[in-house]
Heavy-metal-associated domain-containing protein (Amycolatopsis silviterrae), 229 residues
Amino acid sequence: MNGTALSTGEVQLGTVHAPARAGEDGELSFTVAAADGHPVTKYEEAHGKQLHLIVVRNDGAHFRHRHPVLDPETGVWTIPWTWDAAGTYRVFTDLTPAGGESVTLSRTVEVAGDYQPQAAEPVAKDVVDGYEVTLDGTLAAGAGTMLTARVTRDGQPVTDLEPYLGSFGHLVALRQGDLAYLHIHALDDGKPGEIRFHAEAPTTGRYLLYLDFQAEGVVRTAAFVLDAA
Protein backbone atom coordinates (compact mmCIF):
# COMPACT_ATOMS: atom_id res chain seq x y z
CA MET A 1 0.00 0.00 0.00
CA ASN A 2 1.10 3.57 -0.59
CA GLY A 3 -0.41 7.03 -0.89
CA THR A 4 0.75 8.35 2.47
CA ALA A 5 3.54 10.55 1.02
CA LEU A 6 3.47 13.68 -1.12
CA SER A 7 6.79 12.88 -2.82
CA THR A 8 8.77 9.92 -4.08
CA GLY A 9 11.94 11.90 -4.71
CA GLU A 10 11.27 11.72 -8.44
CA VAL A 11 7.87 13.44 -8.44
CA GLN A 12 6.05 15.57 -5.90
CA LEU A 13 2.43 16.62 -5.50
CA GLY A 14 2.13 20.38 -5.23
CA THR A 15 -0.26 22.40 -3.09
CA VAL A 16 -3.89 21.49 -3.62
CA HIS A 17 -6.04 24.59 -4.20
CA ALA A 18 -9.75 24.19 -3.47
CA PRO A 19 -12.72 26.01 -1.93
CA ALA A 20 -12.05 26.83 1.72
CA ARG A 21 -15.49 26.03 3.11
CA ALA A 22 -18.10 23.33 2.69
CA GLY A 23 -20.84 24.26 0.24
CA GLU A 24 -18.78 26.80 -1.72
CA ASP A 25 -18.57 26.24 -5.47
CA GLY A 26 -15.13 26.51 -6.99
CA GLU A 27 -12.28 24.56 -8.52
CA LEU A 28 -9.81 22.00 -7.25
CA SER A 29 -6.37 22.29 -8.85
CA PHE A 30 -2.81 21.10 -8.39
CA THR A 31 0.41 20.32 -10.23
CA VAL A 32 2.82 17.40 -10.07
CA ALA A 33 6.48 18.45 -10.22
CA ALA A 34 9.51 16.48 -11.37
CA ALA A 35 12.74 16.32 -9.36
CA ASP A 36 14.00 19.45 -11.13
CA GLY A 37 10.95 21.41 -9.95
CA HIS A 38 9.32 21.69 -13.36
CA PRO A 39 5.68 20.55 -13.74
CA VAL A 40 5.11 17.15 -15.28
CA THR A 41 3.11 17.63 -18.49
CA LYS A 42 3.16 14.14 -20.02
CA TYR A 43 1.61 11.03 -18.48
CA GLU A 44 0.91 7.43 -19.36
CA GLU A 45 -2.70 6.26 -19.40
CA ALA A 46 -3.88 3.70 -16.85
CA HIS A 47 -7.40 2.30 -17.07
CA GLY A 48 -8.32 4.87 -19.67
CA LYS A 49 -7.15 7.97 -17.79
CA GLN A 50 -3.88 9.82 -17.25
CA LEU A 51 -4.68 10.52 -13.59
CA HIS A 52 -7.16 9.15 -11.07
CA LEU A 53 -8.16 11.58 -8.33
CA ILE A 54 -9.41 9.98 -5.10
CA VAL A 55 -10.73 12.24 -2.35
CA VAL A 56 -12.06 11.09 1.03
CA ARG A 57 -12.50 12.61 4.46
CA ASN A 58 -10.26 11.24 7.22
CA ASP A 59 -13.16 9.36 8.81
CA GLY A 60 -13.86 7.59 5.50
CA ALA A 61 -16.92 9.64 4.56
CA HIS A 62 -17.57 11.57 1.33
CA PHE A 63 -15.48 9.39 -0.99
CA ARG A 64 -15.08 10.55 -4.60
CA HIS A 65 -13.20 9.10 -7.58
CA ARG A 66 -12.85 11.72 -10.30
CA HIS A 67 -10.72 12.57 -13.34
CA PRO A 68 -9.49 16.18 -13.61
CA VAL A 69 -8.33 17.81 -16.84
CA LEU A 70 -4.67 18.54 -17.57
CA ASP A 71 -3.43 21.75 -19.14
CA PRO A 72 -0.54 20.32 -21.23
CA GLU A 73 1.21 23.68 -21.34
CA THR A 74 1.29 24.48 -17.61
CA GLY A 75 0.92 21.02 -16.09
CA VAL A 76 -2.01 22.18 -13.94
CA TRP A 77 -4.81 19.68 -13.27
CA THR A 78 -8.26 21.22 -12.65
CA ILE A 79 -11.81 20.07 -11.92
CA PRO A 80 -14.95 21.89 -10.71
CA TRP A 81 -15.34 21.22 -6.99
CA THR A 82 -17.67 21.68 -4.03
CA TRP A 83 -17.09 20.12 -0.62
CA ASP A 84 -20.19 18.42 0.76
CA ALA A 85 -19.11 18.71 4.38
CA ALA A 86 -16.40 20.15 6.61
CA GLY A 87 -13.38 18.23 7.87
CA THR A 88 -9.89 17.10 6.98
CA TYR A 89 -9.70 15.42 3.57
CA ARG A 90 -7.01 13.29 1.95
CA VAL A 91 -6.46 14.00 -1.75
CA PHE A 92 -4.84 11.09 -3.62
CA THR A 93 -3.40 11.30 -7.14
CA ASP A 94 -2.85 7.96 -8.87
CA LEU A 95 -0.59 8.59 -11.89
CA THR A 96 2.26 7.43 -14.09
CA PRO A 97 4.63 10.09 -15.51
CA ALA A 98 5.65 9.39 -19.10
CA GLY A 99 8.55 6.92 -19.01
CA GLY A 100 8.25 6.55 -15.23
CA GLU A 101 6.63 4.26 -12.69
CA SER A 102 3.11 4.31 -11.33
CA VAL A 103 2.84 6.26 -8.06
CA THR A 104 0.17 7.46 -5.67
CA LEU A 105 0.83 10.81 -4.00
CA SER A 106 -1.37 12.55 -1.47
CA ARG A 107 -1.91 15.70 0.56
CA THR A 108 -4.43 16.74 3.19
CA VAL A 109 -6.85 19.65 2.76
CA GLU A 110 -8.72 21.38 5.59
CA VAL A 111 -12.33 22.37 4.86
CA ALA A 112 -13.98 24.84 7.23
CA GLY A 113 -17.47 24.38 8.62
CA ASP A 114 -19.38 22.34 11.18
CA TYR A 115 -17.57 19.01 11.36
CA GLN A 116 -19.68 15.95 12.18
CA PRO A 117 -17.44 12.84 12.17
CA GLN A 118 -18.87 9.45 11.27
CA ALA A 119 -17.91 6.13 12.85
CA ALA A 120 -16.78 3.38 10.48
CA GLU A 121 -18.15 0.05 11.72
CA PRO A 122 -17.78 -3.26 9.83
CA VAL A 123 -20.36 -3.57 7.06
CA ALA A 124 -20.40 -5.72 3.93
CA LYS A 125 -23.62 -4.49 2.31
CA ASP A 126 -24.67 -1.15 0.83
CA VAL A 127 -27.70 0.13 -1.09
CA VAL A 128 -27.14 2.78 -3.77
CA ASP A 129 -30.04 4.14 -5.85
CA GLY A 130 -31.94 0.89 -5.43
CA TYR A 131 -28.95 -1.32 -6.23
CA GLU A 132 -28.04 -3.69 -3.40
CA VAL A 133 -24.32 -4.49 -3.31
CA THR A 134 -22.88 -7.20 -1.08
CA LEU A 135 -19.15 -7.75 -0.67
CA ASP A 136 -18.39 -11.39 0.12
CA GLY A 137 -15.01 -12.57 1.36
CA THR A 138 -12.48 -11.63 4.00
CA LEU A 139 -9.20 -9.74 4.27
CA ALA A 140 -6.12 -11.40 5.75
CA ALA A 141 -2.93 -9.58 6.66
CA GLY A 142 -0.06 -10.59 4.41
CA ALA A 143 -2.10 -13.04 2.37
CA GLY A 144 -4.08 -12.79 -0.85
CA THR A 145 -7.84 -13.35 -0.63
CA MET A 146 -10.76 -13.15 -3.03
CA LEU A 147 -13.51 -10.58 -2.67
CA THR A 148 -16.73 -10.84 -4.68
CA ALA A 149 -19.14 -7.94 -5.11
CA ARG A 150 -22.67 -9.08 -5.95
CA VAL A 151 -25.02 -6.48 -7.39
CA THR A 152 -28.77 -7.07 -7.26
CA ARG A 153 -31.93 -5.03 -7.77
CA ASP A 154 -35.36 -6.05 -6.51
CA GLY A 155 -33.77 -9.31 -5.41
CA GLN A 156 -32.47 -10.21 -8.87
CA PRO A 157 -28.84 -10.21 -10.09
CA VAL A 158 -27.98 -7.20 -12.26
CA THR A 159 -26.74 -8.82 -15.46
CA ASP A 160 -26.24 -5.65 -17.50
CA LEU A 161 -23.42 -3.96 -15.61
CA GLU A 162 -21.46 -1.75 -18.00
CA PRO A 163 -17.69 -1.46 -18.38
CA TYR A 164 -16.25 1.55 -16.58
CA LEU A 165 -12.64 2.54 -17.26
CA GLY A 166 -12.08 -0.82 -18.91
CA SER A 167 -13.51 -2.96 -16.12
CA PHE A 168 -16.89 -3.85 -14.60
CA GLY A 169 -15.78 -2.52 -11.25
CA HIS A 170 -13.04 -0.61 -9.47
CA LEU A 171 -12.28 -1.19 -5.80
CA VAL A 172 -10.29 1.25 -3.65
CA ALA A 173 -9.18 0.19 -0.17
CA LEU A 174 -7.93 2.58 2.51
CA ARG A 175 -6.48 1.50 5.85
CA GLN A 176 -8.25 3.26 8.69
CA GLY A 177 -5.94 5.55 10.62
CA ASP A 178 -3.28 6.48 8.08
CA LEU A 179 -5.47 6.00 4.96
CA ALA A 180 -2.74 4.04 3.19
CA TYR A 181 -4.08 3.47 -0.32
CA LEU A 182 -4.62 0.34 -2.37
CA HIS A 183 -6.33 0.37 -5.79
CA ILE A 184 -7.55 -3.14 -6.64
CA HIS A 185 -8.85 -4.02 -10.08
CA ALA A 186 -11.41 -6.57 -11.05
CA LEU A 187 -10.74 -10.02 -12.42
CA ASP A 188 -12.56 -10.98 -15.61
CA ASP A 189 -13.93 -14.32 -14.42
CA GLY A 190 -17.06 -13.27 -12.55
CA LYS A 191 -20.61 -14.36 -13.29
CA PRO A 192 -23.27 -11.85 -14.45
CA GLY A 193 -23.97 -9.52 -11.55
CA GLU A 194 -20.68 -10.43 -9.85
CA ILE A 195 -17.34 -8.62 -9.80
CA ARG A 196 -14.36 -10.53 -8.40
CA PHE A 197 -11.22 -9.00 -6.93
CA HIS A 198 -7.91 -10.24 -5.60
CA ALA A 199 -6.87 -8.29 -2.51
CA GLU A 200 -4.00 -8.43 -0.05
CA ALA A 201 -4.00 -6.42 3.17
CA PRO A 202 -0.44 -5.66 4.32
CA THR A 203 -1.33 -5.49 8.03
CA THR A 204 -4.11 -6.29 10.43
CA GLY A 205 -6.62 -3.52 11.01
CA ARG A 206 -9.79 -1.98 9.67
CA TYR A 207 -10.11 -1.14 5.97
CA LEU A 208 -12.51 1.19 4.18
CA LEU A 209 -13.49 -0.09 0.73
CA TYR A 210 -15.27 1.73 -2.09
CA LEU A 211 -16.64 0.03 -5.20
CA ASP A 212 -17.33 2.03 -8.37
CA PHE A 213 -19.69 0.30 -10.81
CA GLN A 214 -21.71 1.49 -13.79
CA ALA A 215 -25.30 0.65 -14.71
CA GLU A 216 -27.74 2.47 -16.98
CA GLY A 217 -24.97 4.90 -17.92
CA VAL A 218 -24.44 6.10 -14.33
CA VAL A 219 -21.40 5.42 -12.14
CA ARG A 220 -22.33 4.65 -8.53
CA THR A 221 -20.20 4.00 -5.46
CA ALA A 222 -20.92 1.41 -2.77
CA ALA A 223 -19.00 1.61 0.52
CA PHE A 224 -17.92 -1.18 2.87
CA VAL A 225 -15.79 -1.67 6.00
CA LEU A 226 -13.84 -4.92 6.58
CA ASP A 227 -11.41 -6.00 9.27
CA ALA A 228 -8.23 -7.83 8.31
CA ALA A 229 -7.27 -10.55 10.78
About this structure: The radius of gyration is 18 Å.
